[in-house]
Design a protein that fits this description.
Layout: E1 14-28, E2 34-42, E3 45-51, E4 64-74, E5 77-87, H1 107-119, H2 124-137, H3 140-143, H4 157-172, H5 181-190, H6 195-198, E6 199-201, E7 207-210, H7 212-216, H8 218-234, H9 239-251, H10 267-291, H11 325-333
Parallel strand pairs: 3-5
Antiparallel strand pairs: 1-2, 1-4, 2-3, 4-5, 6-7
């Protein structure tokens, strides 16, 4: 399997190779004709793809397809116009590890970091509560992404997001010694656990859809319910502990516009919101930098509501090349 990574594709380039299906739907254009709207990816990134053939059925999410296409630009964003497409066959030489975006560390290692953090807590009620939350989440935590399309949309992305936030929180705590460290770290671990209820994901980290519960309630509301259930299961009698953690979960998006019915009302909750927001944005920006050449602007990133510029850093290889110091390390680590 020898093909260009998605992150290196540019306007007017030809592409023929295998890609993983993240999203595929048949839609109707303004003139009534049918077409396929898809998101296809490899481990370096994804692209919106269009196939203007109404007779082709959408491929299954999580499957691998071979495409022949041209890279175009639409509304300032790169897009593939697919001319031919077929399902992967048993005789095809496909290296699946090159197609599946995954976290840069082994999930077992990240899971151990979370467990060690919980065991290091001094607040016994909170420690019992967190142990039960992790038990309730189960093996889904090993492979679940943190999102369907935005930040940490990769296999084990939820663990990647959580451990990255834990490391930031541990670095920040010495600077603000008035914060309760156990409470902040517990909020980091608990804040997105209910995404395993909100989304439907296979073990490759491909989200096929949102659950009915996820659409009707969302992971903030479900997260509070999980905290209450875990406290009951574990026999936690500390009402303040349960209340504080519940508030951190339901307020971690910060403002009502982003889904939080309450703004953070104590320092640990505010710090959780800031670390979560920072980690999500930095992950999105890192992803965009990998596919944007030095000295160039990206397409408009709708989640950030702006275009991004890739500075001409000294002694940096062009984004997307194998010798990129960040991309190459993460590509290697992801295969371990």
């Amino acid at each position: 399997m020898n093909q260009l990574p998605v992150s290196s594709l540019q306007k007017d380039m030809r592409f023929e190779g295998f890609l993983l299906v993240r999203m595929a739907e048949q839609r109707t254009s303004s003139n009534g004709s049918k077409y396929l709207d898809m998101t296809l990816c490899d481990k370096s990134g994804d692209l919106n793809c269009k196939m203007w053939d109404g007779t082709v059925n959408p491929p299954r999410v999580g499957s691998v397809v071979k495409v022949r296409s041209t890279v175009q630009e639409y509304n300032g964003r790169l897009q593939m116009r697919i001319e031919r497409m077929r399902d992967r066959q048993d005789t095809d030489d496909v290296d699946l590890s090159m197609l599946m975006p995954c976290a840069p560390e082994k999930p077992e290692k990240m899971m151990q970091e979370i467990s060690d953090t919980i065991e290091g807590m001094q607040w016994e009620a909170l420690k019992k509560l967190m142990r039960e939350l992790i038990r309730m989440t189960g093996d889904k935590l090993l492979y679940f992404p943190a999102a369907q399309r935005l930040h940490h949309a990769e296999r084990s992305g939820l663990l990647h997001h959580t451990t990255s936030m834990l490391r930031t929180a541990k670095a920040v705590l010495p600077l603000y010694p008035f914060l309760n460290g156990d409470l902040l770290l517990a909020g980091v671990i608990a804040h997105d656990l209910s995404k395993t209820i909100e989304m439907l994901s296979d073990e490759a980290g491909n989200v096929t859809d949102y659950t009915a519960q996820g659409l009707l309630l969302g992971h903030l509301v479900d997260g509070v319910a999980q905290v209450r259930t875990a406290a009951q299961n574990a026999g936690v009698q500390d009402d303040e502990c349960v209340l504080l953690l519940s508030h951190m979960v339901i307020s971690h998006h910060g403002v009502p516009e982003f889904g939080s019915p309450r703004a953070p009302m104590f320092p640990e909750a505010e710090m959780l919101h800031m670390i979560d927001d920072m980690d999500a944005k930095m992950n999105e920006m890192e992803t965009v930098m990998k596919r944007t050449p030095r000295g160039a602007f990206s397409e408009k990133i709708w989640s950030l509501d702006r275009r991004l510029y890739h500075p001409n850093y000294p002694e940096e290889s062009p984004a997307g090349e194998e010798d990129h110091p960040i991309a190459s390390k993460r590509a290697y680590d992801g295969l371990l």
